[in-house]
Amino acid sequence: MNGYTSSESVCHLEPNPIQLYLNSILCSWHAALKSIKDPIFASEVGCIFPDGRAPDKLKQEVDELISKRWSKFVLSITKYAEYPRNYVRFCSKERRHNVWEDKTAKAYCLKDFLPFLPKGVMLFISSPMNTSSLFHLPAMTLANEMQNTSMISVFLDWGEEGYKHDYDFSEYVENILMPAYVAVSNRFGLPVYLMGHHMGSIAACSLSVLLKNDDKAKPAGTVLMSMPWDFRDYTRTEQNALDQILIAYILQKLEKGEQFSFLLQILLNCFYPGKIFKKICNFADETDQDKKELFVQIFDWLCDTRRLSKKFAMQFVLDWFKKNSIINKELYVCGQLLDPRRIMNPVLLINPLQDKVVPYTSSKKFIRQLRDCSLLSPDTGFFGVFVDEKANEMFADGFRSWIIKTGIEIV
């Protein structure tokens, strides 16, 4: 079954969602069976079995996963793929106004969300492997809030320039983010703020450090959402053995340069493959139409990805993830050390309490490194700031207070 591709105004899925998630489960099964047949594999990749569980216990877990729930998984993922995509994307071509573009990469604002008397600009930065449509889930909550606080919303889509040129992270920042930022600043002549999500937060931090000594050019403020600061916290004690083996297996294959783009997508989106598996299985039984619609929109976004360059994918795995180079202050971007203490502008850190992708303990450590930082910790998860009503309200109140503190006068 093919992914859905229609007009710009509705969802676009690539790669095929069935292929992506079936392969993630098959990959974990393969890895688990490999470790059972070859126990040396576990020690080679540094896999730790919680509670001393041995391979025979793991085999039981795999057998249960495959025999008892496999048919339910296939039914659910098929229903998800066949679900009618009637929702409208707010970033459709007719609603965009491009501020900067370079072949496939673009920075655009949305005509429907321009404030009457703008006081500043917010440049939204997603992870380079994702599209900016993340910020549109399930509706334009964030752009609405920007409009309410007299801010113009501009969204950066990295496109596939980095993949084409095999950029490392520095080159992503230097050749895409920096020119987009300069164009936005020149175009509007207003204070420019940065809002990054996940890997986009690291890009936002990098730009803030690079411009720290330029009072005219540096950002007026930086908002960081689910900032992956300490990667040691990605090894969670609550992960089951199958989850841990999947991560170890993917890391091993990535280090060998195998299928880097597809495998890294699974690594980032499936740190809890068992939970992802259960969420998909539950879709077949869901009767609440609003919940089904929200599930589809979130998983559509997960599948609507951009190909990362091999160079950056390997940098993420070997340096960021395995060597923990960010917290160890060993990551250099465009020749500058990525040290949070070098960020001179105000920072708002949004650190959800129930975030399973970037644990609260990991991200919170970041605040101690900053000169001027405010913290928002909504009781929600990785996507909660975008889709949870209470989290939306908390964000709106906290952001409004912070933006006033940075010098924006809100009428």
Return the CATH architecture of the largest domain.
Answer: 3-Layer(aba) Sandwich
Distance between the termini: 52 Å
Number of separate strands: 10
Q: What is the number of independent domains?
A: 2
Pick out the low-confidence regions.
1-15, 45-52
In the CATH scheme, the class of the largest domain would be Alpha Beta
CATH topology of the largest domain: Rossmann fold
CATH superfamily of the largest domain: Alpha/Beta hydrolase fold, catalytic domain
Q: Overall pLDDT, averaged?
A: 77
Strand numbers in spatial order across the main sheet: 1-2-4-3-5-6-9-10
Query: What's the helix-strand series?
Result: HHHEEEHEHHEHEHHHHHEEEHEHH
Helix fraction? 40-55%
Could you write a compact summary of the structure shown?
By secondary structure, the protein is of the alpha/beta class. A hairpin with a 2-residue loop joins strand 7 and strand 8. Helix 1 packs antiparallel against helix 3, helix 1 crosses helix 8 and helix 8 packs antiparallel against helix 9.
